[in-house]
Specification:
There is one protein chain. The protein is of the alpha+beta class. A 10-stranded antiparallel sheet has the order 7-8-9-10-11-1-2-3-4-12, with helices on both faces. The protein has a two-stranded antiparallel sheet with strand order 5-6. Strand 2 and strand 3 form a beta hairpin. The longest helix has about 45 residues.
Length: about 300
């Protein structure tokens, strides 16, 4: 399936491709001829012709709409880049921990799933080398899940970086693009892989402001990014996603950034089986993981701790 999607994505012309082989005036003239022919036929033939003309309209209009959306997205991303560059919040450094509290909800489809809604609360502490301690609870349940991520450090993967690794990323958009061009992989296209690398890094919350600014500036030149103004808990924000044409109708992931800081404050995803949303409720830099949390991990390891009867 991925091979087919790659072929369709790579084969789809953009506005500049169409202009080289079929200029805007020629496209408009072709559409007008199709519409005139449709108006002179009998009722049944008129329906067929009109349908064909509508198809031509869609084929001609999609690249133009895509170009307009791309320009709007580029403007939004550059605004967010400037906001990120001016953010004065403390920056995570060696010896620090990033403390993040978030709330997630998942609504399962009654047709493709169990129809239930789950609400989880997660509290995490991330160390400079990428080691992470997380405690998660679920509303209506009597347990806490203890989870450790990257016990040996996160390493140097651009899609799963440590704070130490991202601190060395270029702070110039052009240089960052060249840096990532050599390292990204996967996804349905190289453009999408670049998008995934930046959004994966941004959602960690520990990208230095100048690196985040460079990443958002870089995304302004990546085809396929769609943006939309939204409000999250009273905060003006921009939601952006990567549009893979018809596939996005089945599976879409959205990242939401605060307009004032450029920081990720929420995420959403949906597919036929469920919808999921997470919101950052608190993000701060601290000097240590609380002793009681470390004691829980020392006693239970990575396990589920029950706080009462099932």
């Amino acid at each position: 399936m991925n091979d087919l999607l790659n072929a369709l994505t790579n084969a789809r012309p953009d506005e500049s491709d169409l202009d080289r082989v079929w200029g805007q005036q020629d496209r408009a003239a072709t559409l007008q001829r199709a519409q005139r022919r449709a108006s002179t036929q009998g009722r049944r033939r008129r329906i067929v012709r009109t349908t064909a003309a509508a198809t031509v309209t869609a084929l001609v209009g999609v690249p133009a709409l895509g170009a307009w959306q791309q320009a709007a997205a580029a403007g939004d991303l550059r605004d967010l880049s400037r906001a990120a560059a001016q953010d004065t919040a403390p920056v995570l450094g060696e010896g620090d921990f990033l403390h993040v509290v978030s709330r997630s909800s998942q609504d399962n489809s009654s047709l493709f799933g169990d129809g239930r809604t789950w609400v989880d609360h997660r509290e995490c502490w991330v160390r400079w080398d990428g080691q992470e301690w997380c405690v998660e609870t679920r509303e209506g349940k009597n347990y806490r899940d203890l989870m450790r991520f990257h016990p040996e450090g996160a390493g140097t993967s651009v899609n799963d970086p440590s704070p130490e690794f991202v601190s060395s990323w270029p702070t110039d958009a052009t240089e960052l693009r060249a840096f990532l061009d050599e390292r990204v992989s996967g996804s349905n296209s190289h453009q999408e892989a670049l998008y995934v690398a930046i959004t994966d890094a941004a959602r960690t919350g520990y990208l230095p402001p100048q690196v985040l600014a460079a990443g958002l500036e870089m995304l302004a030149e990546v085809r396929g990014v769609h943006t939309e103004d939204v409000t999250v808990a009273g905060r003006a924000a921009v939601a952006f996603s990567f549009r893979r044409f018809f596939v996005s109708l089945l599976d879409e992931k959205t990242t939401i950034l605060d307009k004032a800081t450029g920081q990720v404050i929420a995420e959403k995803s949906s597919d036929p089986s469920s919808t999921w949303e997470t919101r950052v409720e608190q993000s701060e830099i601290v000097r240590q993981v609380p002793e009681e949390v470390l004691a829980d991990f020392e006693t239970h390891g990575e396990d589920r701790v029950f706080d009462g009867p099932s």
